[in-house]
Amino acid sequence: MSSRRLLVALGAALLGAGPAAAQDSTATLQRMTLRLDSLKGIAALAESAKWHSQITDTVSVGALRIISRADYRPVAEWTAAEVWDSLLSRFGPAIADHPPMLLYIGGPPVAPGDAERYSHVRARGWERMFADHLWREQDANLVGWLQGSFPAGPLDEKELVNLSARLAVVPARPNPGCLAGVVSDCATALGLGLGPDTLATWYDSTAWPGLAWQSTDSRPRSESTLRNLCSVRNYPACREVLPRGPIVPPVGAPGRQLLAQLALQVGGPGAFERLTADPAAPLARRLESAAGVPLDTLLTEWIGVVRSAMPAGQRPEGTESVATLAWCAALLLLSLRGPRWR
Amino acid sequence: MFRAVVENQWRESRLAVLLLAGFAFIVPVLCLWGKRSESDPWAFGDLIQAVWQWGVAYPSIALAAALALGIGVWRPDHRGRHVYALSLPVARSRYLLMRYSAGLIFLTGIGVALWVGGVAATARVPLSPLLHAYPGGLALRFWLAGLMAYTMMFALSGLTERAARVLVAGSLVLVIVAFSANAMNAHWNPLGWVADALFGPYGPLGVFRIRWMLIDV
Lengths: 342, 217
Known about the structure:
The complex is a heterodimer of chains A (342) and B (217).
Chain A: H1 2-54, E1 55-61, E2 64-69, H2 73-91, E3 101-104, H3 112-117, H4 119-136, H5 140-146, H6 157-169, H7 174-180, H8 183-189, H9 198-202, H10 208-214, H11 224-231, H12 235-241, H13 253-267, H14 271-276, H15 283-291, H16 295-308, H17 318-336
Helix pairs in contact in A: 2-4, 7-8, 8-16, 10-11, 11-12, 13-15, 13-16
Chain B: H1 2-31, H2 43-54, H3 57-72, H4 75-79, H5 83-87, H6 92-123, E1 132-133, H7 135-157, H8 161-183, H9 190-199, E2 215-216
């Protein structure tokens, strides 16, 4: 009997000790976590100081300054030279007078094989970064119109397909005409030569509630009542609230990027300088000046590129079908002429 | 005799064929389910997005059909150690052609199910003048892709054990060479070449490459 009592008392003590021990452990764990966080911070500072102490070398090519470790110098020199040549051809000789553009390079040493292997990939990355920097320095009109999608070479096939699909699905007034080849509609869709009433120029009132719904996240809360009203087809509310913020354009930033890219391509040497020469001029005139051709010609070219990227339905092309059938026939023939039986 | 082969084949593969035909019919319907909205002009963007997301289902069904039919076509012969086939008074090539054609009939049936499903689904959805429905083109592409994959599976399933071993060994050698080349930083990738050759515009699997869209611009 006494041993049973002892057992019960021991069990009760253990059960009671559990939560107390857990409380102790929690406090210890919290203390250790704080200490660990502090140690991690110190380690990060030490790592940063070590990294900065290793970055002692500066490669200077044109206006580019590549700041890196000494053992990175050959790679940095080669890459910077390639990037600078490309930037000169894209932006013109005027960028030689640009204030130095800095790039810090860290990370582990480059393996001899990798330096050569990834050199072009690295150069494309640097070039993109410096080119974006040069574009962002331009006037607000141009940068705002491009919406952060700066020209960086031809758009790839996927981007063009998405562009043509967007042109077809966004219910903007100018889009059907633009897809059909009406140059003035394309100019409107691209935000060129718009009047004071952008909302009505771009969208029919039936599309306004959708616009309000799309841009809710980026707008101040004070507008939420008006936006909610607009969402339920209160058109005066739409008319009041939508012009307060940026309106979703009929053609997205890639479309504008493509047009600027075409202007630079058509314009050839000096095109960028002509594009950025007169920030006060309307964008349409600046694009004409850059390309050296009328805007209509440029837009015709733009429509041609967009339409050529439109998928031509799902039906397999003739050559594709013939190739597939030929492969099938060849494989079938091999199967039929195989060993008699297994 | 062809009828007997087809009936025999049907008994072997009917579950897979019916299941895949059901999938082929239902996928276009599900893809456009609830997308009927005449009042919201922005709905076409969601429609295209849904169609794009469901696009991966069509080549998957084509591959599954090819796998089921390509293996199923040979299963009775493999199981009976070709005794039945050997007892028939026909040439091997003719017999195999009948087996292949039987599978082709079922593949066509699955393609027709996809076409009917596509037509039924797109008929319910009003489209903007800038968008087009492609149930016929999609079904044709599906059939062509399925045909190619089915023929490959048919050829692979019909290989002798020795030929299969050679093929597997060759594939392993290719993988080993590719990994070795990568480890040695060599500037060539044989696996990439093979993939390019297979999926290139005139490669046997090139028909699988494009985006599969029931509705597109």
